[in-house]
Design a protein that fits this description.
single chain; about 90 residues; alpha/beta; Rossmann fold; 4-stranded parallel sheet; globular
Length: about 90
């Protein structure tokens, strides 16, 4: 049997006290970080110091190098390109 869930089935209150780290601030990371923040969640960004790092700061996120962002978070989204992920692990 397939279960279909809708917005009304979710409760963001369960995440209100969590810190969510978005690792990687490219196409996926930026969109998802902005969406979660707009939904009222506490989001930090982890990235190498490059243009995406600067963009995250410009967008108003607390931005850290990846290891520091992971330490601050209770939930981690790894949104890096596939070819970069082995270097991070």
């Amino acid at each position: 049997m397939v279960n279909i869930y809708h917005d009304s089935d979710a409760d963001l209150k369960v995440l209100k006290d969590e810190v969510i780290a978005v690792i990687g601030y490219g196409n996926q990371g930026r969109s998802q970080a902005l969406n979660m923040r707009d939904s009222g969640l506490n989001v930090v960004v982890g990235n190498i110091k490059d243009r995406s790092y600067d963009q995250a700061k410009e967008d108003g996120f607390e931005t850290y190098l990846i290891p520091e962002a992971v330490k601050k978070a209770s939930i981690v989204f790894i949104l890096l390109p596939d070819e970069i992920q082995p270097q991070v692990y």
